[in-house]
Amino acid sequence: MKDTAASFIAKSTIKAADLEHRRKINFNINKYNAVVPLGKSQFSDVMLAREKAKNKKWDAIEHLDRYLEEFEKKITARGAKVIWAENAQEALDEIGKICKEKNCKTLVKSKSMVTEEIHLNSYLESIGVESVETDLGEYIQQLDGEAPYHIVTPAMHKSKEDVARLFAEKLGTPSGLSPEELTLVARKILRDKYVQAEVGVTGANFIVADVGGIAVTENEGNARLSCAWPKTHIVVVGIEKVIPSIQDLSLFWPLLATYGTGQKITVYNTIVSGPKQANEADGPEEMYVILLDNGRTNLLANPTAREALYCIRCGACLNACPVYKNIGGHAYETTYSGPIGSVITPYMSGIDEYKHLSYASSLCGNCTEVCPVRINLHELLLDNRHEAVLQGSSTLAERIAWKVWKTASLNRAMMNMGSGKMKNWVVNKVFKGWTAHRSDLDFSQKTFNELWKERDAN
Fold first, then answer.
1. What is the predicted pLDDT for the residue at 247?
2. What region does 154 belong to: left with phi over 0, alpha with psi -120 to 50, or beta?
């Protein structure tokens, strides 16, 4: 726990002082902020749309078992195989078995945060399978040996000059290529990989229960190629991604596009409901859907924190968070960064190790304000702190300090006791957390209660 927290503090301290890093991410976030209002303009009442989406996700999560079973029944009827994975290792083992059966040497993979969560690329490398990211941002990050920086925009922290230098170093391209030229280089390399790959892996933005399909939304078309070109298609998706009906996509797809990238709708929107059928010419011969728990049922078991499972992974809370905008995504050292990551990671990966993330917040509420499904993120961050104490994750020194503080706060005589100088010493010298990054507090020499009594006496 201490090592994780200390590492976070060290990395965030460095990044917060890195003005060039902050310039890059704020440049990209400002471009996002400029276009989001255009996406919102498609809704006659955007708040009503958000409330409706929240209610749909409430229904989906409250009846998760029923909707997942309905999805399984429908998609298996069309020839897909559904695999339930309790944790990351089970998911990896199943993928490994499939790759071995198909004698897979090369695997193409579209953008998927859940495969980052289970560290799929590292696992595939360990079993001798080449895993190629086909999303341009993910491909850039893979070339650089880095994890995604942002839920939606993996290489947000890189400028076009950074990417040009990376391509020159890793791929031998001429230096100083434009973004258009860099994209064409990546496209040529990746198109060859699609032809070679025996297996394609995608995630899913939504699991559509009533039709037994997975819905994928994207801007580059790499997910369509990853699931349609190779003979075997593997979907890895968190169980919380379920929505009740295909009719709900008319609400969720525009909301995700608006709050994710500022678009009214993304370029490619696909529903995949099984492998190639007997009367179809295109598509994979086999399709596997891995439904991943990996700590999600820990959130489900908590009536308050359960709300975090409504998340549609748009990344809006990251773009709004003053902490994220200063320290960036990698400082969190988690798959999911920003406010939503700080809420869900302690449940998915352990409160003891990640409780510090719940304090990486100004509690300004901006994350809640921008969430398209209106998750009360800042309140859940407070609830996480409460849960950490209930589960015994607080230190003895912390418990003693708060006991003393509570006792003094409930006792007027103790609050009046001692001069402002003594209080300044206690807060600034004994409790050093405040002054580590702030100037000293300076208490009044007399409390308001004392001043009021003096006024009455006169």
1. 98
2. alpha
